[in-house]
Design goal:
Layout (H helix, E strand, L loop, with lengths): L12 H28 L5 H10 L11 H9 L14 H4 L1
Length: about 90
């Protein structure tokens, strides 16, 4: 992101920070939309991933939030950063 925002805000550093925040939030929304395919999409390995979840990890109620998206992104060969709180099930995605 460029640090030379001017436009209607001139050199006001507070207005520049506001614009950076707006830009950041817009990018977060774009990432959420782009990653939706990994959370909700259909993949050739869906049945196998579900089988491993149930048989190996003995989870009958499905994945926790973000787990399936991380697994699908990884199996698709994409780089992935999983930001999950303590106790959120990160280990299962390794």
């Amino acid at each position: 992101m460029e640090d030379n925002l001017q436009g209607d805000y001139g050199d006001d550093p507070l207005k520049k920070d506001e614009m950076k925040t707006v830009d950041y939030l817009a990018n977060v929304d774009k990432l959420k939309d782009r990653n939706k395919e990994f959370r909700e999409g259909k993949f050739p390995w869906d049945d196998e991933v579900k089988r491993v979840l149930e048989k190996t990890f003995e989870h009958k109620n499905g994945f926790r939030e973000n787990q399936l998206g991380i697994i699908n992104a990884t199996l698709s060969g994409r780089d992935c950063l999983g930001l999950i709180p303590t106790g959120g099930g990160k280990s299962l995605t390794f």
